Amino acid sequence: QLQLQESGPGLVKPSETLSLTCSVSGGSFSSSDYYCGWVRQPPGKGLEWVGHIFYSRSTYYNPSLKSRATISLDQSRTQVSLTLTSVTAADTAVYYCARISLTETVDYFDSWGQGSLVTVTS
Amino acid sequence: DIQMTQSPSSLSASLGDRVTISCRASQSISNYLNWYQQKPGTAPKLLIFAASSLEGGVPSRFSGSGSGTDFTLTISSLQPEDFAIYFCQQSYSTPLTFGPGTKVDVK
Do B46 and A113 lie within an 8 Å CB cutoff? Predict the structure, then answer.
Protein backbone atom coordinates (compact mmCIF):
# COMPACT_ATOMS: atom_id res chain seq x y z
CA GLN A 1 0.00 0.00 0.00
CA LEU A 2 1.32 3.40 -0.96
CA GLN A 3 2.60 5.54 1.89
CA LEU A 4 3.67 9.16 1.68
CA GLN A 5 5.87 10.92 4.21
CA GLU A 6 6.73 14.60 4.20
CA SER A 7 9.95 15.91 5.69
CA GLY A 8 11.71 19.23 5.97
CA PRO A 9 12.47 22.13 8.30
CA GLY A 10 9.65 23.21 10.55
CA LEU A 11 10.86 26.82 10.68
CA VAL A 12 11.74 29.12 7.80
CA LYS A 13 12.69 32.80 7.95
CA PRO A 14 10.74 35.39 5.97
CA SER A 15 12.06 35.96 2.43
CA GLU A 16 13.88 32.62 2.48
CA THR A 17 13.04 29.38 0.66
CA LEU A 18 10.85 26.60 2.00
CA SER A 19 11.93 23.11 0.96
CA LEU A 20 10.00 19.91 1.60
CA THR A 21 10.42 16.34 0.43
CA CYS A 22 7.76 13.68 0.05
CA SER A 23 9.11 10.14 0.26
CA VAL A 24 7.05 7.40 -1.31
CA SER A 25 7.06 3.82 -0.08
CA GLY A 26 5.07 0.86 -1.32
CA GLY A 27 5.11 2.23 -4.85
CA SER A 28 6.34 5.07 -7.00
CA PHE A 29 5.09 7.77 -9.34
CA SER A 30 6.11 5.97 -12.50
CA SER A 31 2.59 5.36 -13.72
CA SER A 32 0.45 7.51 -15.97
CA ASP A 33 -2.43 6.77 -13.60
CA TYR A 34 -1.27 9.21 -10.94
CA TYR A 35 0.01 12.67 -10.15
CA CYS A 36 1.81 13.63 -6.97
CA GLY A 37 0.40 16.79 -5.51
CA TRP A 38 0.97 19.22 -2.67
CA VAL A 39 -1.86 20.74 -0.67
CA ARG A 40 -1.41 23.17 2.19
CA GLN A 41 -3.59 24.18 5.11
CA PRO A 42 -2.91 27.25 7.25
CA PRO A 43 -3.63 26.62 10.94
CA GLY A 44 -7.38 26.52 11.51
CA LYS A 45 -8.17 27.23 7.87
CA GLY A 46 -9.11 25.43 4.68
CA LEU A 47 -7.22 23.50 2.05
CA GLU A 48 -5.28 25.06 -0.82
CA TRP A 49 -3.89 23.15 -3.79
CA VAL A 50 -0.25 24.13 -4.35
CA GLY A 51 0.51 22.09 -7.46
CA HIS A 52 1.27 18.64 -8.80
CA ILE A 53 3.65 16.70 -11.00
CA PHE A 54 3.12 13.89 -13.47
CA TYR A 55 5.42 10.90 -13.98
CA SER A 56 6.64 12.62 -17.15
CA ARG A 57 7.67 15.53 -14.89
CA SER A 58 5.02 17.86 -16.32
CA THR A 59 4.04 20.28 -13.58
CA TYR A 60 0.97 22.34 -12.73
CA TYR A 61 0.90 25.13 -10.17
CA ASN A 62 -1.62 27.31 -8.42
CA PRO A 63 -1.35 30.77 -10.02
CA SER A 64 -1.99 32.31 -6.61
CA LEU A 65 1.58 31.38 -5.68
CA LYS A 66 2.86 33.72 -8.38
CA SER A 67 5.54 31.38 -9.73
CA ARG A 68 7.20 30.93 -6.33
CA ALA A 69 6.59 27.17 -6.25
CA THR A 70 8.62 24.43 -7.92
CA ILE A 71 7.80 20.72 -7.74
CA SER A 72 10.27 18.11 -8.90
CA LEU A 73 10.48 14.32 -9.10
CA ASP A 74 13.70 12.40 -8.51
CA GLN A 75 15.21 9.85 -10.87
CA SER A 76 13.61 6.88 -9.11
CA ARG A 77 10.23 8.64 -8.96
CA THR A 78 10.00 7.89 -5.24
CA GLN A 79 10.78 11.37 -3.93
CA VAL A 80 8.88 14.52 -4.77
CA SER A 81 10.20 17.89 -3.70
CA LEU A 82 8.49 21.21 -3.17
CA THR A 83 10.32 24.50 -2.97
CA LEU A 84 8.61 27.79 -2.29
CA THR A 85 10.66 30.95 -2.56
CA SER A 86 10.35 34.35 -0.86
CA VAL A 87 8.12 33.04 1.91
CA THR A 88 6.06 35.24 4.20
CA ALA A 89 3.95 34.55 7.27
CA ALA A 90 1.06 33.79 4.90
CA ASP A 91 2.92 30.64 3.83
CA THR A 92 2.73 29.21 7.35
CA ALA A 93 0.75 26.00 6.97
CA VAL A 94 0.67 22.24 7.20
CA TYR A 95 1.93 21.00 3.86
CA TYR A 96 0.52 17.68 2.66
CA CYS A 97 1.87 15.46 -0.05
CA ALA A 98 -0.95 13.56 -1.74
CA ARG A 99 -1.46 11.17 -4.60
CA ILE A 100 -3.96 12.18 -7.24
CA SER A 101 -5.56 9.24 -9.01
CA LEU A 102 -6.53 9.85 -12.61
CA THR A 103 -9.62 8.08 -13.90
CA GLU A 104 -11.81 8.26 -16.95
CA THR A 105 -14.31 10.26 -14.93
CA VAL A 106 -12.60 12.42 -12.35
CA ASP A 107 -9.27 12.95 -10.60
CA TYR A 108 -9.12 12.81 -6.82
CA PHE A 109 -6.70 12.86 -3.90
CA ASP A 110 -6.83 9.29 -2.62
CA SER A 111 -3.72 8.95 -0.50
CA TRP A 112 -2.21 11.56 1.80
CA GLY A 113 0.90 11.99 3.88
CA GLN A 114 0.60 12.95 7.52
CA GLY A 115 1.52 16.55 6.80
CA SER A 116 4.45 18.76 7.75
CA LEU A 117 3.94 22.01 9.65
CA VAL A 118 6.07 24.84 8.33
CA THR A 119 6.14 28.09 10.27
CA VAL A 120 7.55 31.22 8.72
CA THR A 121 9.05 33.33 11.46
CA SER A 122 12.10 35.46 12.08
CA ASP B 1 -10.89 30.01 -11.05
CA ILE B 2 -13.86 27.92 -9.94
CA GLN B 3 -15.05 29.01 -6.50
CA MET B 4 -16.53 26.40 -4.19
CA THR B 5 -18.93 27.28 -1.41
CA GLN B 6 -20.42 25.06 1.28
CA SER B 7 -23.38 25.35 3.56
CA PRO B 8 -23.76 25.35 6.40
CA SER B 9 -20.31 26.29 7.67
CA SER B 10 -21.06 24.30 10.80
CA LEU B 11 -23.83 22.20 12.21
CA SER B 12 -24.62 20.44 15.44
CA ALA B 13 -26.20 17.02 15.28
CA SER B 14 -26.98 14.02 17.46
CA LEU B 15 -26.04 10.40 17.00
CA GLY B 16 -28.36 8.76 14.53
CA ASP B 17 -29.30 12.01 12.82
CA ARG B 18 -29.43 12.37 9.06
CA VAL B 19 -26.98 15.07 8.06
CA THR B 20 -26.86 16.91 4.75
CA ILE B 21 -24.07 19.19 3.58
CA SER B 22 -24.30 21.28 0.44
CA CYS B 23 -21.56 22.32 -1.94
CA ARG B 24 -21.95 24.74 -4.83
CA ALA B 25 -19.56 25.50 -7.68
CA SER B 26 -19.33 28.92 -9.31
CA GLN B 27 -19.75 27.29 -12.73
CA SER B 28 -20.80 23.90 -14.01
CA ILE B 29 -18.32 21.16 -13.17
CA SER B 30 -20.35 18.19 -14.38
CA ASN B 31 -19.64 15.47 -11.80
CA TYR B 32 -16.00 16.44 -11.16
CA LEU B 33 -16.64 16.76 -7.44
CA ASN B 34 -15.03 14.95 -4.52
CA TRP B 35 -15.72 14.92 -0.79
CA TYR B 36 -13.20 14.57 2.03
CA GLN B 37 -13.44 14.15 5.79
CA GLN B 38 -10.82 15.63 8.09
CA LYS B 39 -10.43 15.01 11.79
CA PRO B 40 -8.27 17.22 14.03
CA GLY B 41 -4.54 16.76 13.52
CA THR B 42 -4.94 14.35 10.61
CA ALA B 43 -4.87 14.51 6.84
CA PRO B 44 -8.08 14.63 4.84
CA LYS B 45 -9.57 11.32 3.84
CA LEU B 46 -11.38 10.70 0.57
CA LEU B 47 -15.04 9.71 1.02
CA ILE B 48 -16.75 10.25 -2.31
CA PHE B 49 -15.37 10.82 -5.81
CA ALA B 50 -17.13 11.74 -9.04
CA ALA B 51 -19.98 13.23 -7.00
CA SER B 52 -21.55 9.93 -6.00
CA SER B 53 -18.99 7.09 -6.04
CA LEU B 54 -18.09 5.74 -2.63
CA GLU B 55 -14.38 5.25 -1.99
CA GLY B 56 -13.46 1.72 -0.97
CA GLY B 57 -13.72 1.11 2.77
CA VAL B 58 -16.00 4.10 3.40
CA PRO B 59 -19.21 3.16 5.23
CA SER B 60 -22.36 3.06 3.14
CA ARG B 61 -24.05 5.63 5.39
CA PHE B 62 -22.12 8.22 3.37
CA SER B 63 -23.56 9.14 0.00
CA GLY B 64 -23.14 11.91 -2.51
CA SER B 65 -25.35 13.36 -5.19
CA GLY B 66 -25.55 16.22 -7.63
CA SER B 67 -24.24 17.41 -10.94
CA GLY B 68 -23.47 20.70 -12.61
CA THR B 69 -23.17 23.29 -9.85
CA ASP B 70 -25.03 21.80 -6.87
CA PHE B 71 -23.89 18.83 -4.82
CA THR B 72 -24.84 17.16 -1.57
CA LEU B 73 -23.08 14.92 0.92
CA THR B 74 -25.44 12.93 3.13
CA ILE B 75 -24.69 10.94 6.24
CA SER B 76 -27.73 8.76 6.77
CA SER B 77 -27.22 8.01 10.45
CA LEU B 78 -24.50 9.97 12.23
CA GLN B 79 -21.99 7.88 14.15
CA PRO B 80 -19.49 9.01 16.82
CA GLU B 81 -16.58 8.78 14.39
CA ASP B 82 -18.31 11.11 11.91
CA PHE B 83 -17.76 14.28 13.92
CA ALA B 84 -15.26 16.06 11.71
CA ILE B 85 -14.88 18.71 9.03
CA TYR B 86 -16.05 17.93 5.51
CA PHE B 87 -14.63 19.52 2.39
CA CYS B 88 -15.76 19.38 -1.21
CA GLN B 89 -13.23 19.76 -4.03
CA GLN B 90 -13.57 20.26 -7.75
CA SER B 91 -11.26 18.62 -10.25
CA TYR B 92 -12.91 20.04 -13.37
CA SER B 93 -10.09 22.48 -14.00
CA THR B 94 -6.94 23.86 -12.47
CA PRO B 95 -6.45 25.50 -10.11
CA LEU B 96 -8.03 22.66 -8.16
CA THR B 97 -10.14 24.25 -5.46
CA PHE B 98 -11.73 23.18 -2.20
CA GLY B 99 -14.78 24.39 -0.40
CA PRO B 100 -14.23 26.15 2.94
CA GLY B 101 -15.45 23.17 4.92
CA THR B 102 -18.41 22.20 7.07
CA LYS B 103 -17.76 21.33 10.68
CA VAL B 104 -20.06 18.67 12.15
CA ASP B 105 -20.07 18.62 15.93
CA VAL B 106 -22.06 17.18 18.79
CA LYS B 107 -25.40 18.72 19.63
Answer: no
